[in-house]
Amino acid sequence: MEDRVRLTIVDDVAHVRLNRPDKMNALDPAMFEALIAAGTELGARKDVRAVVLSGEGRAFCAGLDLDRLLATTRGESLIPSVDLTQRSHDMANYAQHLVWLWRELPVPVIAAVHGVALGGGFQLALGADLRYLAPVTKLGVIEAGWGLVPDMAGTQLMRHLAREDVVRELTYTGRVFSAGEALAYGFATGLADDPLAAALEVAREIAGRSPDAVRAAKRLLNLAATSDVATGLAAETAEQAALLGTPNHVEAVRSNLENRAPRWSQA
Description:
9 strands; 11 helices; globular; 14% strand; alpha/beta
């Protein structure tokens, strides 16, 4: 996995780094496999409280590997040995799962984006809960320029972040846009000269909160994106009832009253 993705965990914060710097971390089949493996591992761990997603070298991710795009003109699949018409991962196909799994991860995911985030790379960043961008980053829904559409969950994620007309204009034209525009549109949480440092700082702050409460909050916010109000309100009540009186709830109250760092139980 490390020839495509490096995974480290320090103080309950996992750092997933795309590790193909010579190709600007373009998504080839090995990168797909490694990212999915890393996400799957993190989803099963109880000792991780936040995840940072970043790219080594000059870019976050330049999108799908050019060799795979060329292969499609010869009638080959975008990803060899994978049938993208199959819902292989619940409601998602294999390529969509690469992005959607970060949204479904039980803990918050923070993307540190620099250089470029184009096509599949942009969609990968959208799978995170939060996105910090270097001011000179270039982004784009560039699939139209290659005769394709965004098909890695991008259409389902963009619509919750930006106005519909903005999403349509970017998707129809394939126009590359700036980090400042991304912030104005709603795709960026913030701009930072060092987005990785900013992402790690926020991740550590999240890791300092009750892991039970943070996981419950992510479940609620994910549900809110797709449910009706009645379902969402009922879920709030259920999550709160499940938290009240638990060891980590009691510890949160006590540590605040005693003005000390909390000592959390395992999530």
